[in-house]
Design goal:
Number of strands: 46
Shape: rod-shaped
Largest sheet: 12 strands, parallel
Radius of gyration: 38 Å
Number of helices: 12
Helix content: 25-40%
Distance between the termini: 90 Å
Strand content: 15-25%
């Protein structure tokens, strides 16, 4: 009878039986017998293993084949590639379901062709330092019981670690993945070090569980990276990492302190992500769309400090996320992304700017209070003309700082022709005469206009006194406080002077308020 494990793993050359288990009467060959039942020394056993590998390699080289060396299910006491001459180049290997009872040590610069460690168990230290994987490397559902080292390893083809269990410390520093790398549903119980790793293909960490600290510093990710539904149970450090492709952190959980300091993102999504601890994004660079929706975090948990205007101009978030975001030392764009891409929904934009104004006020950041107050009120003005498509560009043109003054006046006239109802809006007049109390130059110009207007009007005759009911108007003014102080006898003229005084006084007050806001900033 052949070895039961040779049959189970469908070896092409079943091996002779050397051990029979008295309990179940199952028979095992040298490769599949328990480590202490092989009847030979560890060195002798390894010599047999490598003799099998060498035979396949020799046939492949002699016949130009790519035959697979099957060692699936093998029980190996200790393993080292030191038996071969250097540099070592191995044929395709299959270790599916194998058990490495002792240390598994792969000499540096060892070159694997296609290799499969599917559901393999490493009971002791596993070292693949500076190992080169020429073909596909499969470690799916493998178990690494102790420290695992892939320092400086190079994966030229797809590498998969799906469902792997790393129970000891894991070291991937300076490893290179030239193709896809997948760690889906991997469980990393202790510290995992990915510093200076280069991912030139996509990398997938979806559903991965990181129990210890994760060091992901100065990593280069040339294509998309997925952390969907991954869980970081301790410190996660992504400092100075470059994500050149899409980064997906949907439903990702960060339980410990997280650092994205000076990290570069291109199109990153934190949708329904949970930050139990604090996340530091100080000095980070965001080059494309950044989505911050439905975040779960405590107040000011995400430190978005010292960000550039170009980075903040592509932030997509709502008033619901504002509470958990902290902005300090940032250069803000004139308009935020939600206003640009969701233009018709000015109500949502108004709520966003209001929430930012309230946050700035709570942090005693008066310049930003003024900025967000202006944008909040402007959204209210835009809601008045949302049904007039031609009016919106005119308002934007007036708001544009580079627009010449003469063109702004012209655009304002066109705006009022399209939307004459604005003349009945207090929001419009507050914006027109002072920029909501935030544009002192505009308030000053309007005050000067009101002051000069009486001189212009007095340069012409006043036929207004010949109008009907002038006397009745004059009598009516006697009932108003301070009306007796307005000079003149004609009722209509006195009424005009009273209105002029009221407007000048009111505009002077608004001008003073705008000046105060200017210097308060």
């Amino acid at each position: 009878m052949p070895c039961c494990k040779c049959e189970e793993h469908e070896w092409p050359d079943p091996q002779p039986v050397i051990y029979t288990d008295e309990a179940d009467r199952k028979e095992y060959c040298l490769f599949h017998a328990p480590a202490d039942k092989k009847g030979i020394s560890v060195d002798e056993f390894n010599e047999r293993v490598f003799a099998r590998i060498a035979a396949v390699k020799a046939r492949n080289e002699a016949e130009g084949r790519n035959e697979l060396c099957d060692l699936s299910g093998a029980i190996i006491p200790d393993f080292t590639t030191g038996w071969f001459d250097k540099p070592l180049s191995l044929p395709p290997l299959k270790f599916d379901g194998a058990i490495f009872c002792g240390v598994a040590y792969i000499e540096p610069e060892t070159r694997f062709d296609h290799v499969s460690f599917l559901s393999t168990t490493f009971n002791d230290v596993a070292c693949f330092e500076s190992t080169e994987f020429i073909g596909r490397a499969t470690f799916d559902n493998a178990t690494f019981s102790k420290e695992t080292v892939f320092y400086g390893a190079k994966f030229h083809y797809r590498a998969t670690f799906d469902g792997v269990s790393f129970r000891g410390k894991l070291y991937f520093q300076q490893a290179t993945f030239n193709s896809e790398a997948s760690f889906r549903n991997a469980a990393l119980s202790e510290e995992a070090d990915f510093d200076l790793v280069k991912f030139f293909g996509w990398a997938d960490f979806s559903l991965a569980r990181f129990g210890g600290a994760v060091l992901f510093r100065q990593v280069t990710c040339s294509q998309s990276v997925y952390f969907e539904m991954a869980k970081f149970g301790d410190v996660a450090d992504f400092t100075l990492t470059h994500f050149f492709g899409t980064t997906n952190c949907t439903n990702t959980t960060f339980d410990g302190l997280t650092s994205f300091e000076q990290t570069t993102f291109n199109n990153v999504t934190f949708y329904s992500s949970e930050f139990v601890g604090q996340a530091n994004f100080t000095g980070a660079i965001f080059n494309r769309l950044t989505t911050l929706y439905r975040l779960k975090a405590h107040t000011n948990a995400l430190l978005l400090h010292s960000l550039s205007a170009s980075s903040l101009s592509i932030f997509d978030f709502t008033s619901m996320e504002t509470e958990c975001l902290s902005f300090k030392g940032c250069n803000w764009p004139e308009r935020l992304l939600p206003e640009v891409i969701y233009g018709p929904d000015h109500k949502a934009c108004e709520e966003l700017y209001r929430s930012l104004k309230q946050k700035a006020a709570s942090e005693h950041d008066q310049p930003m209070v003024s900025k967000w107050h202006y944008r909040e009120k402007l959204m209210g003005l835009k809601m008045l003309i949302v049904g007039i498509p031609q009016a919106m560009p005119l308002l934007d043109e007036i708001e544009e700082k580079t627009t010449p003054a003469w063109r702004k006046v012209q655009a304002a006239a066109q705006l009022l022709r399209l939307a004459p109802g604005l003349l009945l809006s207090l929001n419009f007049w507050y914006w027109a005469v002072s920029g909501y109390g935030e544009r002192e130059k505009r308030a000053g110009v309007f005050l000067a206009f009101l002051a000069v207007l009486p001189f212009v009007l007095n340069a012409f005759p006043h036929p207004i006194e010949s109008f009907w009911f002038s006397t009745q108007v004059n009598d009516a003014l006697s009932h108003f406080p301070f009306a007796k102080d307005i000079p003149g006898q004609g009722g209509w003229l006195r009424l005009g002077k009273g209105i002029s005084q009221l407007l000048i006084t009111l505009q002077a007050t608004i001008f003073a308020f705008a000046l105060r806001n200017r210097f308060r900033r």
